[in-house]
Amino acid sequence: MKQKVVVGMSGGVDSSVAAYLLQQQGYEVIGVTMQVWQEEESWEQAGQGGCCGLSAVEDARRVAETLGIPHYVMNFRREFKEHVMDYFVEEYLQGRTPNPCIACNRHVKWESLLRRSLELGADYIATGHYARVDRLDNGRYAIRNSVTAEKDQTYALYSLTQDQLAHTLMPVGAYAKGEIRQIAQELGLSVAHKPDSQEICFIPDHDYGAFIDREAPDRVPPPGNFVTRDGRVLGRHRGISHYTVGQRRGLDLAMGHRVFVTRIRPETDEVVIGENEDTFTRRVLCDHVNYMALEDLAGPRRVVAKIRYNHAGAPCMIEKQPEGRVLCSFEQPVRAAAPGQAVVFYEGEYVLGGGTILEG
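and the corresponding structure tokens:
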């Protein structure tokens, strides 16, 4: 009997081709589009290449029809609101810089979709992420880099659990983006040249501060002071939710040269301003660590760590600290390690694990 796989079809080219590839590998494929938030007009989402809007359902349905597979829509709005949107707002209110895509992957695309799919008798779930899943010699599952560094998405997947990985397929990770589009074109899929989805689907205008003001009107951070590291007041800011560590644009400070946000102090509503060199650090402390390629960190270990999605990665030593935290000591200083972002550890092509930056 064929093994059954539920493919999370976002209406984009990657998940569409993932469904086709699994079909060719002999799986019984079921397409599912996750409704997580639908507030934009269909045309607006389509124009922006959105993965979560109304047009995603229609695009996925057309692809499923072309492939001859069943397609269903599942409502995950409550889970998305709680684990992604509310989390995003809370982190900014606390002066941190969240990564909603990582939260969505762990709690919605995997935890919620996988649970519901298994209840329906599926053996696996699959997505169109550019990554691979391997079982290592030690018996553990780990995320492996895609064959192309250009679209590699392993950074946003570090928090997946062993159980989730054991039930996950990622066929697109064996292909380059151009190859995926070529396959879609040859199949006559309507999404073959659809633009890639936005970084944060629920904030299409990229105005995070305004979004937070709307979502938490009773908790909007008040204006406060721009200050130097030693407390000298430089000017006034709009509220800490409008800033992130490493930011230099939109500060409206007449300093005569470029200056940068180096720290955010939510307890005093202060945004600390410094020079470019002040944004660099050799030491990054993280918590909420998820180990993937190994069960636990027994001693100091040399890895390559990425402190943001588009960071190339840098060599460092990781060492366990009290309360399950991990200290990353980089060989060369890294720039703008923002609290709230993820730091992900790699050994070779594999994700060793990662955590949430606490201090940079």
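(Above: one complete record from the training split.) The first helix runs from residue 13 to 24.
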